[in-house]
């Protein structure tokens, strides 16, 4: 089932439940889907991979805003971003924990034959493809850097 159909049903449910934070996040997702579908050069359909990238982008925006609001001691705004992030994350695949991610990255390093920090680009290319949607890019990068500098 497509993301758009899931969102439309969830919006209706959130409206009936008067769940303001959930409704805000769902409307943001729906708006992003519509923008992506009507973007110049778009075919009008989104693949599952496109939907995943879109949700990851929305989640990253919320995380970045959350960090900024916390630095500025704006807990009122940070709370809104946290609520929206929680809703968006429901539509994303389960994220790997650090132990799972470490094991996966070690496997990728072994498979690519990387041995020094100079091989980071090669490892990151393989890791981002293999772990797309399952882990945050910053975490992957930090772990690859740590493992290659040992």
From TrEMBL:
The terms under GO molecular function for this entry are: carbon-nitrogen ligase activity, with glutamine as amido-N-donor
Which named protein is this? GatB/YqeY domain-containing protein
At the top level of its lineage, which domain of life is listed? Bacteria
Pfam families linked to this entry: YqeY
């Amino acid at each position: 089932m497509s993301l758009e159909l899931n969102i439309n049903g969830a919006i209706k449910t959130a409206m009936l439940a008067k769940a303001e934070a959930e409704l805000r996040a769902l409307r943001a997702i729906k708006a992003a889907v519509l923008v992506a579908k009507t973007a110049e050069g778009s075919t009008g359909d989104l693949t599952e991979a496109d939907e995943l990238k879109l949700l990851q982008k929305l989640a990253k925006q919320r995380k970045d805003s959350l960090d900024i609001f916390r630095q500025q001691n704006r807990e009122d705004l940070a709370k809104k971003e946290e609520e929206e992030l929680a809703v968006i994350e429901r539509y994303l695949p389960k994220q790997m924990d650090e132990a799972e991610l470490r094991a996966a990255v070690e496997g990728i390093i072994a498979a690519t034959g990387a041995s020094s920090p100079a091989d980071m680009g090669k490892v990151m290319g393989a890791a981002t493809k293999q772990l797309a949607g399952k882990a945050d890019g910053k975490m992957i990068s930090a772990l690859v850097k740590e493992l290659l500098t040992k």
